[in-house]
Amino acid sequence: MKTQILIAALFFGGLITAQQKKDSLKVNAIDAVTLKKQVFKKQGDRLVYDVASSSIAKGTNTFNLLKQTPMISSIDGKTLKILGKNDAVIYINNKKTNMDSEALIEMLKSTPSEDIQKIEVITVPGSEFQVESKEGVINIVMKKSKNNGYNGTLKMQNEQAYYNNPNAGASFNFRQGKWSGNSNFRTGSWTDRQRYTLSNGDPTFKNESFGFNDDPNKNFGGGFNVDYEINKKHSLGFSYNMRYNKSFNSVLDITNWQNGVLNNRTVNNEDAQTRNHSFNLNYEMKTDSLGSKLTSNVSYLWFNRDKVSFNESFPLTNDTINKYSALHQAVPQIINNYAANIDYLKKTAKGATWLMGISYNHTNTDNDTRQDKLKNGEFIIDPNQTNHFIYKENILGIYLNYERKLTEKISGKIGARYEMTRSTGDIVDKTGFERNYNNLLPYLNLNYAISADHNLSYTFSSRIRRPRFWELNPSRTYFTPTNYTQNNPFILASKYYNQELNYMYKNAFYANLSFNMVEDAAASDLIPLQGTVTAPKKDSKGKIIKDIKGNPIMETTRFLRYIRTNYGKNREIALTLGMNKSWFKDIWTTNYSVNLGYVTYKGGVFEDPTSMPVPGETEVVDPYIIDVKNYNMSATLNNVIRLSSKKDWFLGVNYFFASQTAMEGGMIGARQSFDLSLKKIAGDWTIVAEVSDLFNQSFYSIKGVQPNGKYNNITNFNYPRLMSIGVTYNFGNQKLKKAREMKSANDAVKSRT
């Protein structure tokens, strides 16, 4: 926004004072000065988007605002990603959010955009951030005001995909004297519909499966945060968050063909419930007037997921090998986490900043998997797939950062994080392991402001990625009796080395070059392992069938397991070119970016680390070779057009495209999404109508071929077209200051549940 003024108010006031002292000083004429606040700029280790100065930040919500932020994208309306990164970790006022991902997205969708001051995008986070692998950070900075009072938001939305999915939410904030707080509640239901096409085999054998999955979900969640300012130096806060999800009568129905002949049909019925409760106690003490402070947290997290399923396979031919089979499976998981941390931020009079801290996490997971298999007309325990797995993990972290401005043009930040991990895994009465490792994770950022229009920065960071707790649980999820996913308790942590070079021109155009190296890499998806099991043939009563010489007659069964495991290393280089600019007096706002990448994956999987010998059976696993080199490209084009001079009608036109992209499990087909939205602002009411992925083109299709001719292809069509209409009502004092956001000591663990 351009404003012509005679002189800046501060300077004008100073002139009046000077004229009162010196009558001889006369100012005959002053030229007009044109001021334009920078909406998008590079600042230290982050890109800053000054939302309060942007014309699109009116009458929308925080989630939609983030989608319009440079370097950030969302093609499904449920997740946020930083271009070139795995995921975006959300911070609010430099404090990591204390919610699971779905609750967080709903909170962002119910938070008015008018509450946001700026959004900071940190593509390579420093040592003080609790992130893993190559995750980036989005820090949302809220506006501040000391007004007492209350405000809130009511939101209702109805989405139409394959099924109709309604949801609603409410948030309430208050401030009165030394007390402040906020609370939120969300409820809704949705049913996912997916259609599968699976094929695998080799030049001599072909297996095809076709089917669908209906997964109904009902959930509600919420939480509250209360903050008490003891005095100007001391503050105490408490927060609680919870979420409950129920998914009963989820049905997976698959029909199988072998070499073009109809073989059998598998139906899997599943009931699951998930409960999540987290508590955090926070204390903060300000130690000087420069902004130095001591912060401490004590946290507890309880996570419980109960899942039971009944899998039936019906023969559709008269052969004796593929006869009726069934199994019951129960896969419960309980996670208890206790955590604490202390941070001390020290600012000096010369502008330098020190940050030092220590954190501790203790996690105990209990996974008591039970599986019964139908034999001789009754269900008996399957000892091979019945596992009681107990995993314990202790992580001690120590970190130190130093940041300062070296010259008028050069600034820097250097730091390191030292983590000591001690963990044990015990599959009761079967096997176990112990893993102890230490990691020194350095960090460096250098920023050079070449001129007012040019900025150059370099960042290096090292991180590790620990396996998620559910990935470690040695259980299976079945498509068919011989086609299933297999978790792996023996998977190792991966080491990441991330480098980035960023250039910005006129705070509107940017180029971002990144290079990532991964050692002990684990597949970002699943590795498809094919093989055979040879075992004695049995009759309908379970007795071994023998030949005339008394020797068992052996039969061979093919299998396909999608397994999580380490395979080797990968390298990735990516170049992102972007622009964020408004045209025609802010009538048209554009946020464009193009990402060019080159990736290599090198390694292989030569055995199933989860297999346990069964007497009388012989298992052969075909080696899975990973030797991939791939160029890929993606583009995001977001447009917001103001349709009226009153700034109450807005049109959104967005387009996303991703070319074929290689992964360890195969080649992902090209995807694209074309989205339209229309927004109407009427006082405290906002009405938004949206169509996402108008042409149903953002589904996943994967094709993988091995050097020996074996192949595995997957098409997962999830009916991505989504039409929705939402109504939001904001009430109360909209200038109310938010309660102090608090960092939870167990944030790093939450992302692994």
UniProtKB/TrEMBL annotation:
Domain of life, per lineage: Bacteria
Entry keywords, A to Z: Receptor
Protein name: Outer membrane receptor protein involved in Fe transport
